[in-house]
Amino acid sequence: MGILRFILRRLMFAVVLIVGVSAIIFFLVNAIGNPVAMLAASQPNATEDSVAELTRYYHLDQPAWLRYLLWLWNLARLDFGSSITYNQPVAQMLAIWGFETLKIQIPAILLALGLAILIATIASRRQGSRLDFGVMSTALLGQSLPAFLMGVLLILVFAYWLGIFPSYGAYSTRTLLLHSSLADGLWHMVLPVAMLTFFNTATLTLLLRANMVEVLRHDYIMAARASGLPERRIIFGHALRNAIIPVLTYLGILFGLMLATAPVTETVFTWPGLGFLYINAIQQLDYPVIMGESVVIAAMLVLATLATDIAYVLIDPRIRLD
Amino acid sequence: MDTSLPARSRIRAPRRPGVWRQGWRRLRRNRTGMLGLTLVALVVLVAVFCPLLAPYNPDDQSAMMSFGASAPPAWSHIMGTDRLGYDIASRIVYGAPTALTVGVGAMLIASLIGVTIGGISGYAGGLADELLMRFTEFFLVIPVFLVILSVVRLFGIIVVGTWLESVPHLNLGTIIVLLGVFGWPPIARLTRAEFLRLRQLEFVEAARCIGARRRDILLRHILPNALPSIIVVVALGVGAAILSEAMISFLGFGDPNAVSWGQLLYFNYETLKVAPWASLAPGAAIFITVLGFNLLADGLSDAFNPRLRQ
Lengths: 322, 310
Fold this sequence. Notes:
- The structure holds two protein chains of two kinds.
- By secondary structure, chain A is mainly α.
- Chain A folds into two domains: 2-76, no CATH class; 95-315, MetI-like fold, CATH 1.10.3720.10.
- Helices cover 78% and strands 0% of the residues of chain A.
- Chain A has 14 helices and no strands.
- Chain A has helices spanning 3-32, 35-42, 48-57, 64-76, 90-125, 130-144, 147-161, 173-177, 182-216, 219-226, 231-260, 262-268, 274-284, 287-315.
- Chain A is globular, with a radius of gyration of 24 Å.
- Chain B is mainly alpha-helical.
- In chain B, 70% of the residues lie in helices and 0% in strands.
- Chain B has helices at residues 4-11, 19-29, 31-48, 50-53, 88-124, 126-141, 144-158, 170-182, 185-198, 202-209, 214-250, 261-268, 277-304.
- Chain B is globular, with a radius of gyration of 24 Å.
């Protein structure tokens, strides 16, 4: 099967997925009742006219299935509607808050990949040594230490006890009010990125080391050794290239996992990202935001797996698409 | 008739330990696996004997009056008190049964669905297999955690004013059911792979030849042989479910009437700076439990499939 047909099929699957997820959430939110009525109940000086106007604006006087179809139709034109509590277009909000999320997720994944390659290569070359055992035990422990607990520890030690890094937020108030400062933004990123990197590194190292050990046993490694290639070229040119393929496919899953648990990791650092926004939206029943975000995250998950599948094929010519 | 006894004993095959006994023997020699088993046993023991172990009633806030809220560990409160005046050690101990109920309950539901779907898919093959696996794939890519969060929150609003409100621990029950309903895809995939592998082995063919019914082949020949592998995924799933419940509670979507570690973190995270013990203790409890199940699963997988790792 051609790669284009494969991509097309997966994209169709993504559409089915998005329709499915959004339908589940839409009808659930709908079962609760009227978000505008809830909003009005909390605003004592809301007039009947403004309530009626809002109700008409969100089409709450129409049946649920019709509103769902309307929502889908708007989504097809990339119109996510506007937030009930923030009075902003959802698309704009997703872009702003999503940037903050990716700002800590992507560096954490890339850093972890680099660290895992370094650590796993060293450990697998000294199999069974004390160093190998130590690295593997730490990685096994690290994999069971949930990222958000690591975050709590990091805040306690580096923000409260040592006072080096800030404990919350993406920028300090000073930056927000006076001038934008790159250094300040980076300074705030250190702890959240460290938290995510630690977890990702543990997982990736375990996987990569297992693959390296497996690959190093193959005959072609022995053949390379016999032909007198320098060890460095054997490790990086032959062994690592083969061992890293399953790790690359795992990156997509890992990215998805990080995105899905963003509400937790971002709550720990009061980080203004998609996860934090999601929690707020659920609390306020801001359903355009809830739906828009679920759809965007589901789409990112599918695209991440698709990207890794394509990378898989490009790296390993033995793999066929089906 | 004298000769029948020795004759029969001669043709009897030498008794060899079954897969379970062999697995146990290998597990006992596996250091990580035994560490995991010890940690899990510790949590189970604490959960079973929690009324005996806890120094205070978990709902006792009397420390507020004398000892003080957010007080550091001391002899009378070995892990200190939290900002609501609860004795943390007692809340930790009483959190163990909650955690285990969530983990085991969710995985019971997940295994029931997963083994059924995976088993049918693997044994039947063809169109049924294709459809069921697409369905499983769909569930695998749903951002489960986000969906569970919204459902828990929304369900909590729907039930207000209905008879459901009087059900004890309704919120916790909802979380367990949701974790189960969304947690089955890995079990289904593994079960399918095992059924596919086992159904073409000789002993299944032999069973078919002697005219065993399909139900018996599935439940008495294939399923018992697939169980060791399934148990590994289930052990991993128990740890993951406990972690998910902790995260849901940490975000404030947990059951306010249940004593849970995540909830303890939620209530005390704000005071991390002045009373770190109140957040560290539940954090450590979650870590130990999740670690225990992960290591146990690791050990079990080595014990049941020794050829995978040499």
